[in-house]
UniProtKB/TrEMBL annotation:
Domain of life: Bacteria
Database matches in Pfam families: SEC-C, UPF0149
Gene3D superfamilies to which the protein is assigned, alphabetical: 3.10.450.50, YgfB uncharacterised protein family UPF0149, PF03695
Lineage: Bacteria, Pseudomonadati, Pseudomonadota, Betaproteobacteria, Burkholderiales
Xref: NCBIfam families: ygfB_yecA
Chain intervals for the UniProt region annotation (Disordered): 224-245
InterPro entries reported in the protein's UniProt record: SEC_C_motif, YgfB-like, YgfB-like_sf
Residue stretches in coiled coil: none
The protein, known as: YecA family protein
SUPFAM superfamilies on file: Sec-C motif, YgfB-like
Length: 245
């Protein structure tokens, strides 16, 4: 049995990426870059988020309702093992040397910074109030994620031709965010969070951190815009070509 703290090889990263991109899932699942951003926000955030809460969104980034499509139990176990090792790699880096963390979009042109930051913003939705409080205290800390991970930000970044500036700014902001929450949350044992992933068992449907708002309904923030064009914009699938390399 493979050690769950063993880093994924390049071939294993490709294997996990290929699974997420299979035809039955590619239109709704996260890609590897979005997944890393999503898990990073969850792992360095204000509280522990159980796998049963965050896992459904990996397979269905818009609604958190659809299940993964596995050929059989062996494949399910294989993919879950890769996923947990991918997660533990992020955990170990922030436990030992946060400054060494490098977003996956620097490893190859196939991994998009826009998708990474979109995933990070999605990961903050498990505790909206806490994250919103941080952004009020330190508004510049969220700027790289907004400039690369939202439709409005991407448009501004393209117009200003400064994508690399914001891509470079992500890692330093992660160090600051990690230190901020580390000081404030209760100490928890390092390692894998024990939880039921739901294989072969009935589990309640995934729910959003807030009540469901239709994409074409007025945004509850009162802006007058449709939800998908306002507060719901970061949960939309990234538009074509936002890789920002």
């Amino acid at each position: 049995m493979t050690d769950l703290n063993q880093a994924l090889t390049a071939e294993e990263l490709d294997e996990l990426s290929d699974f997420l991109a299979q035809p039955d899932m590619e239109d709704r699942s996260m890609d590897l870059s979005m997944l890393e951003g999503y898990l990073t926000a969850i792992l360095i955030g204000p509280r522990v988020v159980m796998p049963s809460q965050w896992l459904p969104w990996v397979w269905d980034a818009d609604e958190g309702q659809e299940e993964a499509v596995f050929a059989d139990l062996d494949q399910a176990n294989r993919i879950m093992g890769l996923l947990m090792r991918f997660l533990n790699g992020i955990v170990q880096t922030f436990l030992t040397d946060p400054a060494a963390f490098e977003p996956i979009y620097w490893r190859g042109a196939q991994w998009g910074a826009a998708e990474w930051c979109e995933g990070f913003l999605l990961g903050t939705r498990f505790d909206r109030e806490a994250w919103a409080g941080l952004w009020v205290i330190q508004p510049t800390w969220v700027t790289p994620f907004l400039r690369l991970g939202t439709e409005t930000g991407i448009n501004s970044t393209k117009n200003e031709s400064n994508a690399e500036l914001w891509m470079q700014a992500v890692a330093p902001m992660l160090i600051k965010i990690h230190a901020f929450w580390k000081e404030r949350r209760q100490a928890v044992p390092a390692g894998i969070v024990e939880d039921d992933f739901g294989f072969g068992r009935q589990r309640p449907p995934a729910v959003r951190a807030t009540s469901k708002v239709g994409r074409n309904e007025p945004c509850p923030c009162g802006s007058g815009k449709k939800f998908k064009k306002c507060c719901g914009s970061t949960s939309e699938t990234a538009p074509p070509g936002p890789h920002l390399h």
